[in-house]
Amino acid sequence: MGKEQKRVRKSDQIKGNAQKTNKKLQNSSSNKKNNKIKGKKLQNQPQTTQKNNKIDKKIENNQKNHNLVEIISNSFVDENRVNSSNFIINGEKISVFYVESLIDKQLLSSGLLAPLEKFVKNSIENVENSMKPEEKQSENVEKDMNVNEQQSDNEKNNTKNDKKSPENSENNTENDENLAKITKNNKINVENYTKNAENSTYSDENSDKNIENGDNIVEKTAENVKNNDDIVENLAEIIKKQIVSVSSVQEEYKPDKIIEAILSGSAVIVLKTKALIYPLYNPEKRAIQEPPTSRVVKGPREGFVEDIDINTALIRKRLKTIDLKIVEFLVGRRTKTKVSMFYLKDIAKSETIKKLKKQIKEIDIDAIIDSYYIESFLETNKFKFFRRVGNTEKPDIFCAKILEGRVGLLVDGSPVALTVPFMLFEDLQSADDYYNIPALATLTRMLRIVGLIFALLIPGIYVSLQSYNYRILPINFLITLLSSIEGLSIPPLIEILIVLFLFEIIMEASLRMPNSLGMALSIIGALALGNTAVDAGIISPPSIVVVAVSSVALYIIPDQISQTRLLRLLFTAIGGIIGLYGIVTSFIILSTYLVSITSYGVPYMTPFAPSVKSDKKDAFIKHSIEDMKTRPELIADKNKTRQGGDKSVG
Amino acid sequence: MSARQFYLTVLIFSISMRVQKMPTIMASYLGKDSYLLVIVYYLVSFVLICLAFFVLKCMKLYKEASKNSNLSKFFKGLLLFFVSLYFIFLSTLLYESIQDLFAHVLFDNISWNLFSILLVVALFYMGLSGLKSIGRLMEMYFFVIIMSYFVIAIFGGMQTDFSAILPLETINFAKIFNEYIPFNIWFGDFMLILFLGNRSEGIKLKWTLLVYFISMAFTVLVTIEFFGIYDVYAAIQSSLISVITEMSMLGIDVGRVDWFLILFSEMGTIVCSGLCLCLAKECLSESLPKIKPNYILFVISVLLYLIDTQILVDTNAKEIVFLEILSYYAFYLKIIIFASILFISIVSWFKYRKRQGSELDLFGQSLQEKREVPAFSDSATMLAGSSHNEGSSGEPHKTNNLTLQKKSNSKKKKAKDKAVAK
After folding, report:
1. Is the pLDDT of residue B93 over 50?
2. Residues near A144 by Cβ (< 8 Å), separated by ≥ 6?
3. What pLDDT score was predicted for residue A511?
4. A106 inside domain
5. Do A266 and A352 fall within a single domain?
6. Residue ranges of domains in chain B, CATH in brackets
7. Does A533 share its domain with A390?
8. Residue A599 backbone phi and psi in degrees, to 5
9. Last residue of one domain, picked from the residues A425, A453, A468
10. For residue B122, what is the nearest residue in chain A, using CA coordinates?
11. Which residues form the domain of A452?
12. Residues A100, A59 share a domain
């Protein structure tokens, strides 16, 4: 380690050569001359120097974190959540860090901790058994010492070379040669260790052989081990390859990355200079249930959960194609939330993919708690009234949208998946539409449209008719209305606004109130509104009916509820002030806005404005799945055929 | 704007323009024969539409040729300025009919000066969104608007006494033709097709004529219904659309559920007014390229508001004078514009042909050189080149290498043929 620290201080020129060579030697037994030449070449190539810098950093970190075990242990001094187990192998302390609540405990104990304990136990026994051939050991140790001396000499040479000048390329070559020797020795150590470890981890049946091999272990260890770094290097290899039975492992040198991995639910074996990260993340999870916001009578009832891996599996289960691409991002400076982007590479628009990737990469926030956080970053327009990102909690809907050419996003910790591009009409579609006969789906879609108009305009029209345009009403109805509002002291606009606000208050309270109080609240609300207010002459019965109809209709499209509630208030106010003329004019302004906006290049009101004939098969009048032979025209730009066509392209 | 949006826009525009105040004003001049003038206008418009398509073709084909001429640029700017005025006036007419409907018929007593601001805002926003958005709006509202017009026509037809437009022998044709000019402002479809068609893709004459025929059939039908219902009283009605269904609703002013239909149809009128404003903005921004289009739109909107609130307040002398000025302006402007555009198109066409001819020669030569250089020896290339140069004046040079010359000649011929074909 000390040698390497010194090497860091070398001039850039020498460092380039040495590090390049070092790297080369670590990876394979490459030719010295080649290294030298390549090292020289690298000086002239700015592109490759970037690579070198990366290696520099890695080595720097390796060197700076002199004892990673200490650093990591100190980092978690006040942290009760983090558990650790310590082992001493060949005099080296290694620690296993993990957060118990996040980790797969079974896998941790059987795949990681138990094998490590066993290895330690075996190593001790082997050492005890091999105490007899002390002479051989001492000889080997002496040899090792000699080699160590050689190394230190080499190091000295290196230091001298540093001091002299970067022009001493010959010395550099010597250094490289020395390094090559060291690394070669290291390699031998690793190989021997591996062989020995293989023997040492055998079961009791092979105990005799183990004893024999145990001799070899110590013998060869003593023969080959050169310094502590080598031991760590060898240990890491042994742990990775022979001891721990968890296959997925990642090496890390930087303490901050190691800490991050521990806190995100990985088990980390920390050695002196490096750490082995085992992703054993398995926290307590919610079971897969039907999402409360999109229940279906027919069709799959699976819903996304908060765990992104389960959600990914749910998608993978449905889309068993190699064309499904998953791109992962870590978003949030503190939360490091995993965000996965899903798309079918042979269908989705490349512009949409590029834009989305760019937007996610540009997100700079400390925390991503839910997918809504991401959603607000994806909507690039300043006036974010209508959402331009679709969301769903059902994997079947998500997959259907991906198959249409959309790009989907899953956020770890959120059961709500996002899809882009999004059109307004998607909110009028339901999962049930696709699992029922088309005629019924058509009827329900018509009902949703009527419901939306009712929710949006009914209070406004009522107020305007009462205030200005009462002549429009049929005479009989007008007489009934007039009799019911007789004696009312407040203007129609104020009256309806009072009812609307009362309704909003009751709704808000009922959402947050404990269930046990819900009934009481309903009674109070109904009595206060239905009887007392009417009897007191504050409000009229027709206004309650109008607001009730409008409020019930709000929930026919739950995804647009926030927008509809706000617009309802606006239209009511305009209807009360300017009458039907105001409603018509403001509705035109709203429509103009809706037709002028786009979501990722797709007009928001597609397939109606602009009219797309093929896409209308899944609009008001729902056609059967058999008739929908093509994907939405404006969403996918490749492979538009769903049925027939080239079967090789899905 | 797509072709579909273009057709729908033309249909709604041509109906919306003619079912508002025009029949009532016509009635005061021509009485029950007004529908004949409508037919005459439509027939003339059919011819003008065909010409508009010819001009459009010229404009699109020879756009390149007219680009470089400074004179044509200046002339184009001037012309577009006057055209924008025409569209502002059209927008004003539609605006006025909206005002009439809401401020005088539907509402009893409102402050239009205040209420009008919302309409100006709506028109301004439509103009700001551009033709694409207006085209989409037309697509979105089309079904509702057309259905409401259709139901209105049915309601009107239920109460119509078709014998009121008879006898035909009393028709005064001379009077009809004399009154041609004052009403030409209401028939601005030729201009709309010309300027909207220039901004649309894939439009076809036959579909446009079909759309126009539907519009004619509907307009003539409701005009006949209007005169059939109100006969001599037609002239004192405020607008056709507001009263045509009144009789079918017991003839009283209460319980007018048909107002909802009128409101839906009026949405088309508002969008058409926005369309005219947008076209005016586009023409003016081309004419005055240094000024930002949004500023121009703002100024036009304010102008529209002022005209509506200061001049077209109610039916008085100011309004009549204004409408007469408008009619004559529109008539002469249309003639001038049509003649100018036709002239520009023909000149451009000639220019284009001329330039295409010169490009053809050059292209032919360069193509030939390109092909011959790698294929033949230097001497052969030189010969071929000289033979080409000489070719225009007379015989080609003779060469010892006859096969090469033959080859080069055949290649030249092919290249020339290709260029001609292009």
Report:
1. yes
2. A222, A223, A224, A225, A226
3. 76
4. yes
5. no
6. 3-349 (1.20.1740.10), 354-421 (no CATH)
7. no
8. -125, 110
9. A425
10. A589
11. 438-596
12. yes
Contacts B139 to A, Cβ<8 Å: 608-611
Beta carbons of A576 and A463 less than 8 angstroms apart: yes
Q: Which of B139, B263, B270 sits opposite A608 (nearest CB)?
A: B139
Structural domain includes residue A303:
no
Tell me the C-alpha distance between B126 and B281, whole Å.
11
SS3 of residue A589 by DSSP: helix
- Selecting from A478, A578, A608 the residue whose C-beta is nearest the C-beta of B140 gives A608
Residue pair A352/A395 in contact (Cβ under 8 Å)? The answer is no
Mean pLDDT on A453-478:
87
Q: Measured between CA atoms, how close is A620 to chain B, in angstroms? A: 13
Chain B residues at the A interface, defined by Cβ less than 8 Å, are 2, 4-5, 102, 106-108, 110, 115, 118-119, 121-122, 125-126, 129-130, 132-137, 139-141, 253-257, 259-260, 263, 266-267, 270-271, 274
Using an 8 Å Cβ cutoff, are B10 and B211 in contact?
yes
The answer, yes or no, to whether the previous bond of A283 is cis (omega within 30 of 0) is no
Of A581, A595, A608, the CB nearest to B115: A581
Q: Which residues are bridge partners to A330 per DSSP? A: A338
Our CA angle for A254, A49, A162, nearest 5°, is 80
Q: Same domain for A580 and A455?
A: yes
What residues in A contact B122, CB-CB < 8 Å? 585-586, 588-589, 592
Query: CB–CB of B152/B222 below 8 Å?
Result: yes
Mean pLDDT for chain B overall: 76
Q: pLDDT tier at A235 (50, 70, 90 boundaries)?
A: confident
Are residue A421 and residue A484 in the same domain, yes or no? no
pLDDT band at A64 (very low <50, low <70, confident <90, very high): low
pLDDT, one tens digit per residue, over B323-374 is 777 778 878 887 887 777 777 777 766 776 676 655 444 333 433 444 433 3
* End-to-end CA separation in angstroms for chain B: 29
Judgement on whether residues A178 and A259 belong to the same structural domain of the protein: yes
**Do A319 and A226 belong together in one domain?**
no
Cβ A250 vs Cβ A47: under 8 Å = no
Helices (H), B100-230: 112-129, 131-158, 173-178, 189-197, 205-230
CA-nearest residue to B98 within chain A is A581
Q: How far apart are CA B19 and CA A37, in angstroms?
A: 89
Residue of chain B minimizing CA distance to A468: B107
Inside any domain, residue A62:
yes
Cis bond before residue A607 (omega within 30° of 0): yes
User: Which amino acid is present at A325?
Assistant: K
Claim to verify: residue A381 and residue A475 sit in the same structural domain: no
Q: Which residue has the tokens 């027919």?
A: A298
Could you give the dihedral angle defined by the CA atoms of residues A344, A349, A350 and A356, in that order, rounded to the nearest 10 degrees?
Answer: -90
DSSP string, A287-325: PP---TTS--SSS------S-HHHHHHHHHHH---TTEE
Q: ipTM > 0.90? A: no
Taking contacts as CB-CB distances below 8 angstroms, the residues of chain A near B118 are: 578, 581-582, 585-586
Calpha distance A498→A491 (Å, rounded):
11
Domain tally, chain A:
3
Pick the residue of A581, A596, A615, A634 with the most B CBs within 10 A to test the interface with B by mutation. A581
User: Could you tell me if residue A636 is inside a domain?
Assistant: no
Single out the residue of A229, A230, A248 nearest to residue A192, CA to CA. Answer: A230
Last residue of a domain, one of A425, A447, A471: A425
* End-to-end Cα distance, chain A: 55
